[in-house]
Request: fold
Amino acid sequence: MTDFVFDHLVYAVPDLDLGTRYVEELLGVRSSPGGRHRGYGSRNRLIGLGPSSYLEIVSVDPSQRPSGWPRWFGLDDLHESRLVTWCMKSDDLSGLVARARDVGLDLGDPIVASRVRADGTELRWTFTDPASDRAGGVVPFFIDWGLSEHPARRLSTECSVGDLRFEHPDPEPVQAGLRALGVSAAVGRGDSPRVFATIESPNGTAELA
Reply:
């Protein structure tokens, strides 16, 4: 599917408790606490998708005051739960951003961010700007976990990603941009940008979109 290594899916929900319950019932697994993104106004829970990948369920954190800029993943205007985007690993974010701009893709400048796990451990990472449009989320953002322990290391491995598929109203240039980055995911035509994931779980094969 890609020359990069898959890191995680982002499932954005208006209400973290309700959204998490839906995903847990769909897959037949329990999620694990993620943490709060301090200064960014969001919080998450996680479900493992293998030893080095996971599903992030993310929502607005009502305990944090608005930061003055839009929250990641369109959370400020989100009215229904949906799979908003996906993420790949890269250990050369600056070079990747430059190559993307050479072919007309703006991944945004790399950002350093962090969150505190439920056990008090701080995780720090660098990633390309998740607020950049990226063809409505069809183009992934990219992450480098640096010296932090990867979140999947502490998650259940009962689930795995079987397939990812994508739709966009103008798929040809999106497909060309992905190919130029070395990402070989196929993009079909659809009414709006969409990400679909087939997940193998204790409940069998499920689709999240």
About this structure: The first strand starts at residue 5 and ends at 12.
